[in-house]
Structure prediction request, 179 residues.
Amino acid sequence: MAIMVQHALNFRHHMKLTRFVLAALAAAGISLSAHAAGNAVLIQMEQDGKFKVWHTEGESHLTEDEIFSLAASALPEGGKRMLTGAGFARAIETKGGTIIVVSGADVEKSMLVDRDACGHVKLWYSTGTTSLTDEQLTELVLSALPDGGKNILVGKRYAKAHSTAIGVMVVLWEPAAVR
Prediction:
């Protein structure tokens, strides 16, 4: 029973976060396709105190079945190597989530597999176009709350940070033009 209650609470939190993200994008005049093009990042703190930033934009070159198989085989020391359409790949289970690395690709081309409360898979890519300074990353991480922290001006964009189980998810958007 307690597990069912926790799943319900996680689902409610996810739905609140989803509604907020959609409302923020709509208020900022950003379409969903623009959001998918790189207006969100996931920030994780590494053991050396530096930030690892994961991006929404990117191509996996792996099929959904390959991603599911690799994620299911993940181990802390690295799961078994599997032949995929993009070459050999393996998954590593970390405290921050499951990372898939394709052989021959450098670490900067890895993917983080994230699952929401409903079990939907979200891929985060280790390279992307969103560039934030260490000072901006620190401010965003410190402002993060489960339902979203305060809006922060980052360059010419606004950002809102949400704390999640695997890091801080940040939605970035440009303010609507004043008419």
Remarks:
- Residues 2-27 form the longest helix (26 residues).
- Helices lie at 2-27, 32-36, 64-72, 134-143.
